[in-house]
Design a protein that fits this description.
It is built from nine helices and no strands. It has helices spanning about 5-10, 15-20, 40-90, 100-145, 150, 155-205, 210-265, 270-290, 290-320. Helix 3 (about 40-90) runs antiparallel to helix 7 (about 210-265), helix 7 runs parallel beside helix 9 and helix 8 (about 270-290) runs antiparallel to helix 9 (about 290-320).
Length: about 325
């Protein structure tokens, strides 16, 4: 029944196409800041100010937290590395007794140091990209929102489209950052576990040799390995916790802001059917790009749309019931 339209909206089209058909199909109106819209406009302005402040602060805090986490892990490894290297270097003797221990340490020390450096560099790059995306779209959206009062005829489609682009692009960047961080920390964990097993094994094989340096190194490594394990485990856990917190804050803030934008668009006479189509077309791509957190936003706003459809159906049915 709704084949072409449903396909154009993407995904399962039955319910969405029914929602399109039952929405109020009035002619497009000239958008103006009338008296009845001023309360919604004031609410949106206040909401935007709070949203912009909250997310700007949260993004800045997240940068500081993650930078500190990486610096602590890197600093811990470099501190232990320097102490262990002093002991290991004494094992590389002409008779070759401790050369294998020295070789394994040298190779894996370089691997771990390079991996930590790469993680810090990648995190800085992803944070910069996220900040640039936020600055670009929040500036554009802020200009459109503040321009509503003076423009007289704001474009509901343009404002709503910018809002969806902000949500989509920020969501993708956060997903990329969370995924990249998880991949990097997982790879670091594999390198560390592989190294620790090999190093312990070599120390056990050589500990009975009449070499005081090996005995001292073995005793030192028992404590050092525990410190490194706790440091790397803490990096993984704290990093994931911070990303979850950032994404949860973003989800909560965008849900509230999205509702306020939708309310204003309704109050100035925006074409609700057109808004629904625009939302569904963009949100399907959004949901694929952001996974669970996007789904939370999409499901919440779709529920609001369903309620609006039910309200419109009730309003249409009321006059018929009186007859």
């Amino acid at each position: 029944a709704g084949g072409a339209g449903a396909g154009r909206l993407g995904g399962p089209g039955g319910e969405r196409w029914r929602m399109n058909r039952t929405l109020n199909r009035t002619e497009k109106k000239e958008y103006s800041m009338k008296d009845e819209t001023k309360n919604e406009y004031t609410s949106l302005m206040n909401g935007w100010t709070n949203f912009n402040t909250e997310m700007s602060d949260k993004l800045m805090d997240s940068v500081k937290v993650q930078q500190k986490e990486y610096e602590q892990a890197y600093g811990k490894w470099m501190d232990i590395s320097q102490k262990v290297s002093t002991k290991v270097s004494k094992l590389a003797t002409p008779d070759g007794e401790g050369n294998e221990v020295y070789s394994v340490w040298k190779n894996y020390n370089n691997l771990i140091e390079n991996r930590l450096g790469k993680m810090m560099s990648n995190n800085t790059h992803m944070q910069d990209t996220l900040q640039k995306t936020w600055s670009e779209y929040s500036t554009r959206l802020g200009q459109q929102i503040t321009g509503l009062d003076s423009d007289g005829k704001p474009s509901a489609e343009s404002l709503y489209t910018t809002w969806m682009d902000l949500s989509n692009n920020m969501g993708r960047k956060m997903t990329d950052m969370a995924t990249g961080s998880k991949v990097e920390t997982t790879e670091l964990s594999k390198i560390w576990q592989d190294f620790n097993e090999k190093f312990y094994s070599l120390l056990d094989q050589n500990v009975s040799a009449p070499n005081e340096s090996i005995s001292e190194l073995t005793e030192m490594w028992k404590n050092s390995a525990q410190e490194v394990q706790e440091s790397f485990q803490g990096l993984w856990e704290d990093n994931q916790k911070e990303m979850d917190n950032l994404q949860s804050t973003w989800t909560e803030q965008t849900q509230g802001m999205g509702k306020q934008i939708t309310k204003l668009m309704q109050s100035v006479g925006a074409d609700y059917e057109e808004m629904l189509q625009n939302y569904l077309e963009r949100s399907m791509e959004y949901s694929r790009g952001w996974g669970m957190f996007a789904s939370q936003n999409v499901n919440t706003e779709l529920e609001d749309l369903r309620k609006r459809v039910a309200q419109l159906e009730a309003e249409k049915a009321a006059p018929q019931a009186k007859k």
